[in-house]
């Protein structure tokens, strides 16, 4: 059977287009999940932008009310702060001292815990009295030297952190003012503890 060359070319074109269409359909089906992810991300981003806009509007309105009517919130804020100082003076005192002295205040509980650990281990050594050679004084000195390495590491770390803290407060006046106010607040709370603040019933 004889087919003209034009017919052969047409059939080849039809077959090629059919195969190409199948591959395009398969490739399109493979990226449907990507389209779904893009839709979810787009809707999520729009929802986040909507929530951010609402919260921004509420914050602006709140700041506007505070600026226009300072008496509405200043007196209740001072009263609530004073009551908090009276109810939790130790927490306020420790927090203010921590801000004023900086990281160096961490050495106080560390040294206390270390000395307690040395004394505890030293007292436990009496259980083996007579089994371990040497004098009792030598055992105590050995324990102190054993813990000395960890103490030096902590000292070096705290000293570096304190140096950075002092640099920040010396370079930024606002931080220095905040640090001094924290120290004054600590003195005020200490005076309140000394004078005997009564907890409200």
TrEMBL record:
Domain of life: Eukaryota
Keyword terms of this UniProt record: Membrane, Transmembrane, Transmembrane helix
Keyword Membrane in record: yes
Transmembrane segments: 33-53, 91-113, 174-194
Name of the protein: Uncharacterized protein
Species annotation: Coprinopsis marcescibilis (Agaric fungus)
């Amino acid at each position: 059977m004889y087919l003209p060359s034009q017919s052969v070319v047409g059939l080849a074109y039809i077959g090629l287009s059919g195969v190409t269409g199948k591959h395009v359909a398969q490739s399109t089906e493979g990226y449907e999940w990507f389209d779904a992810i893009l839709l979810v991300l787009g809707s999520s981003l729009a929802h986040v932008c909507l929530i951010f806009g609402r919260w921004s509007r509420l914050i602006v309105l709140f700041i506007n009310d505070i600026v226009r009517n300072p008496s509405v919130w200043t007196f209740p804020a001072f009263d609530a702060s004073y009551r908090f100082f009276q109810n939790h003076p130790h927490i306020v005192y420790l927090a203010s001292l921590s801000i004023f002295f900086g990281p160096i205040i961490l050495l106080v509980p560390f040294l206390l815990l270390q000395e307690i650990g040395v004394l505890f281990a030293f007292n436990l050594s009496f259980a083996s009295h007579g089994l371990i050679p040497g004098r009792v004084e030598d055992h105590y000195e050995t324990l102190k030297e054993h813990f000395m390495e960890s103490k030096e590491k902590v000292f070096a770390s705290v000293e570096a952190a304190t140096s950075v803290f002092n640099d920040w407060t010396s370079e930024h006046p606002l931080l220095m003012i905040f640090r001094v106010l924290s120290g004054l607040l600590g003195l005020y709370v200490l005076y309140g503890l000394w004078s005997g603040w009564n907890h409200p019933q």
